[in-house]
Every structure is written in C-alpha cells, then in structure tokens.
Design brief:
This protein is an alpha+beta fold and 508 residues long. The protein has 2 domains: 235 residues, Nucleotidyltransferase, domain 5; 248 residues, 2-Layer Sandwich (Nucleotidyltransferase, domain 5), CATH 3.30.420.40. Helix content is 40%, strand content 20%. It has 18 helices and 24 strands. A 7-stranded mixed β-sheet has the order 18-19-17-16-22-23-24. The protein has a 5-stranded mixed β-sheet with strand order 3-2-1-5-15, sandwiched between helices. A hairpin with a 3-residue loop joins strand 1 and strand 2. Helix 11 packs across helix 16, helix 14 packs across helix 15 and helix 16 packs across helix 17. The radius of gyration is 23 Å and the shape is globular. The protein starts with 5 loop residues before the first strand and ends in a 7-residue tail after the last helix. The C terminus is likely disordered.
Length: 508
C-alpha cells in the first residue's frame, strides 16, 4: 500500500449522505455530510428521493476531495454502504420508475405481512429466508408496489437498495450485495441467491432482481459522467459494498464467530456472529461481509427508553448525563424494581402490541431507582434476546458496543454484568466509514482478510468487565423479569380494546 493511498467511503444514511477520505492506517482525514429530507405522505409511511442521495453524494465527494491535496488521484477504490431496505426501482434505461423509495421504517406493507403470516406458517418459509416477516423487508414493499403502484412496478427492470443506486450512478453496473439481499425476505441463505420458493410465495418477478455479489468484489469503474459530476478520477474502482449495519459491525471490529455487537441508538440491536443462520420465528439473520451470519434481535426501545424517562420525569430539563448520574445513585437491581422496556411494542414475535411497565414499585423507590430500572430494563430485554440466540450453543466471548449507547459508561457496565460478557468500545465511533475503508483496502489486496484489516484499522478505547456482585443480583432477577413479561401478554389485547372503546376525554 502506497503511503499516500486513500479510500473513499460513502455512507447513505437515513438523515444524510456522507463521504470520507480514509488513509492506509485507518485514520479519517476528512468527513463531510449533507442532510436530506424524509417524506411522510401518510401516517406510517417514510420515503426519500434517490435523486437526493445522488446529488448529496456528489456534493460531499467534491468537498472531501477539495480538502485533501491531490485526493482524486490518490484514491485506490470507492466503497459505499447505506441504510438497508430502502426499495428503489429503475427501468432498463436507468431511469427511476418511482421518484421516491419507501425506507426501512415505512409501515405501509403491514397488510401484506399480515396476509403472509396468515397464509404461511413459519416452517414453510424460515428455511428459505432465515428471517421472520416484517414490513421493513423489501419483499413486502415490492408486494405493496405491485398492488398499489402497478405501472412503476411493471416498468421496473431492476430493484436496488440505496447504496446500489449510488453505485449504479458511479459506474453504471447493476448488482446487490449479499448483506442487503439476505434481509430482503427474498434470498435463500443456503445458496446466497434469490429464492424461487419465496418469490413464488410473494408473487414477485425474479427478472427484476439484480445479481447478488460479494461486498468485496469490484463492481465497476467511475464513468465519464460520474467523474464530471463528482470530481472523482475516471476509472477509479467501485466496490459492491454493503448495508450500513453489517459494514458498521466490521468497522467496529466485529469480524469473528463468537463476537457480539451491541448497537444502541433509538433501538437496541444485539447481534452474535456464527457460521450459520438461526432459524427461529423471533430471530433475524444477516449475511456478513466475509461469509458468516449475524444472528440478531431488536428491541425497539433502547435509547428511546432513556429519552422517554427524561421527558416523562423531567420534561427534558435534565441532561442525559444528569439522568445517568441519578441512575448511578441507586444500587444494582434498583432494590427490586423492574422496568419492562416495550414502550412501542415489539417488532417481531407474537406480541407487537406489548406495553412498558414498572413492576415492584414501593415507597422506598425514588427517581434514582426509576432511572436505573429503565437502564437495567433495556438490558434485561436484550439479555432475554441473547439467551434465545445462545440457545443453540453459540458461545458469546465478547461484545463490541457502538452507536450512542457506547458513550454511557454506567449503561455499559450494567450491560457487561447483565450479559456476563466483557464489553469493549472502539476508539473511532464512525464504524460505517471505517468498515467501507476496510472493504476497499482488502479488495485492493492490502489485507488477506477483513479480520486482518480490522487488526490494522480498528483500535479500542475502553473495556468493561462483569462485576460479580451485580452478576449475582441480575441472575436472581432475570427469572422474575421473564415471568412478569410472560404473564403480561394476556392483557395486551384487553388494553387495546380499552383504549379503542374509551372516549377521548381530551377532545373538546
């Protein structure tokens, strides 16, 4: 690797598109972002314009190139990652057949998911897709488009994910990588190709799906038109790349079986790497960059639970640091106070209408106990998910924490004790950018594997070990948490009916 070698990373996020120049040591020399609009035409819908992604990408690329001397000539390869599930349709001429793409958080396909669940028991589809159905998956979004926007669907020749559209504009080639494809609800995990069985169940056209390729492959080279638009050198290699979530995992050092990833932002995603997917109606599976599988479960309320507590108890007058400080005044276990963190229900499983609750509240409990219970409640919920994933014998050796939750030391210490597993935190929080650079450097032959690239590019700043006294407390509390969770299921439908039938006493 030349001392002056650079790699260009592009991250097409939900809130912005970003570009970064990363050098051969893994240092980010320049990072620039540009926000783009999320469109909400109806309740539960969420869309963006792919053209906004491209115009934003060209803008931020030009800005990072201008910031570093001779950058365009020093870039060895370009690699993009992007928000997953955003479903883009283009025709044979490369033109969009829909101006907007429904995003990962778009819920318009709920009727399609409900109909699929009703018609197909899990044993008929799990082996063919390794994932439970949800409106996030592109397969159901395509079902909706076929039924509700038939002209756009019929005239489309290729389905893209967000980073695929950027790649197409850069090099003119059509493909999807196996990380994005693996959680489309259309890829066969055994073959890493589109599943004829699932496509038949969904009523979708195989011909509209692009080839599935390795994220490490070179897709093509920057075209004349893309060079003129972006300032990149014509002929610069463009990688296939991957979804932002699995790319961020490798960028934070999650590259070997037995390693877990804790990504706590608004939600909390726990992922454990294994050699095979886990076929379970509550467990999702994403293919990793280098051929492993990330078995993951999602808790909708992660950081959102802390945000709720800050608003509900303090009307947002306290900082998050102050809230955490209060939580630290209470002992491990919050003196028998439990919090079930299901503020917005559950995304998978049989109880999407779950509720949050405090249990065990007594006169001795004050604000510190309430706040600690919220932090511990999220960790209890994640531990329940970890135990499901580990039920097949997967050994979790360490967890690497990323995203906003990696900044809260008390929460990390709670999690290490709750999960009985060491938690380490990368020094560089931009896991997506670093992951793209690792892919590019490996694809260009500078590393024999992504694991070797991680040893060079990823550095760790902090480590949290389980505390034996807290471990004992949480082990005693966990069966009670599970019992309260199980016994609460029977009243969720009753609560729904109560809310539906009660008059709105707040309306005039």
């Amino acid at each position: 690797m030349n001392d002056k070698s650079l790699f260009l990373a592009i991250d097409v996020g939900t809130g912005s598109v970003r570009a970064a120049l990363v050098d051969r040591t893994g240092e980010i020399l320049k990072l620039v972002g540009q926000e783009h609009q999320q469109i909400v035409p109806h309740y539960g819908w969420a869309e963006q314009r792919p053209e906004d992604w491209w115009s934003g990408a060209t803008s931020v690329i030009r800005q990072v190139l201008a910031a570093v001397p001779d950058a365009a000539n020093r870039i060895e390869a370009v690699c993009a990652c992007g928000q997953m599930h955003g479903t883009v349709l283009i025709d044979s001429a490369g033109q969009l057949t829909r101006d907007t793409a429904p995003l990962w958080n778009d819920k318009r396909a709920l009727p399609q998911v409900a109909a699929f669940r009703k018609s197909h028991p899990s044993d008929l589809y799990l082996a063919a897709t390794a994932n439970p159905p949800t409106p996030a998956w592109p397969g159901f979004k395509l079902q909706w488009m076929k039924a509700n926007d038939p002209d756009a669907y019929a005239s489309a020749s290729t389905v893209f994910m967000p980073k695929d559209y950027i790649n197409f504009r850069l090099c003119g080639e059509r493909a999807m990588d196996w990380t994005d494809a693996s959680i489309s609800f259309m890829m066969d995990p055994a073959t890493r190709d589109w599943s004829p069985r699932l496509l038949e169940m969904l009523g979708l056209d195989r011909a509209k799906l692009p080839p599935i390729r390795s994220p490490l492959e070179v897709l093509g080279a920057v075209t004349d038109a893309a060079a003129a638009a972006s300032g990149l050198r014509k002929g610069t290699p463009v990688l296939v790349g991957g979804g932002d979530y699995p790319v961020s995992m490798i960028g934070s050092g999650v590259v070997s079986a037995g390693t877990g990833s804790d990504i706590t932002g608004t939600s909390s995603i726990i992922t454990v790497l294994a050699n095979t997917p886990m076929l379970h109606p509550e467990v999702s599976n994403v293919a990793t960059m280098d051929g492993l599988w990330g078995r993951f479960m999602l808790l909708d309320s992660g950081g959102d639970a802390v945000r709720w507590a800050r608003r509900a108890f303090h009307q947002n007058q306290l900082s998050y640091d102050d809230v955490t400080r209060l939580a630290g005044e209470a002992p491990a276990g919050a003196e028998g106070l439990f919090f079930l963190p299901y503020l917005s229900g559950e995304r998978f499983g049989e109880h999407p209408n779950s509720r949050a609750q405090f249990f065990g509240l007594a006169a001795k409990h004050g604000l510190p106990h309430l706040h600690r219970a919220v932090l511990e409640g999220v960790a209890f919920g994640v531990r329940k998910n970890i135990e499901i994933i580990a039920s097949t014998g997967v050994q979790l050796e360490q967890i690497i924490a990323a995203s906003g939750g990696a900044k809260a030391e008390l929460w990390l210490q709670i999690k290490a004790s709750m999960y009985k597993t060491p938690i380490i935190v990368p020094a560089e929080p931009e896991g997506g950018v670093i992951g793209c650079a690792m892919l590019a450097a490996t694809a260009m032959g500078h590393f024999s594997s992504l694991e070797a690239a991680a040893r060079k590019f990823v550095r760790f700043a902090r480590e949290f070990q389980p505390e034996p006294a807290a471990v004992e407390v949480y082990d005693r509390m966990m069966p009670i948490f599970e019992r309260v969770y199980a016994q609460s299921q029977g009243v969720y439908d009753d609560l729904d009916r109560l809310v539906d039938t009660n008059p709105d006493t707040t309306s005039a």
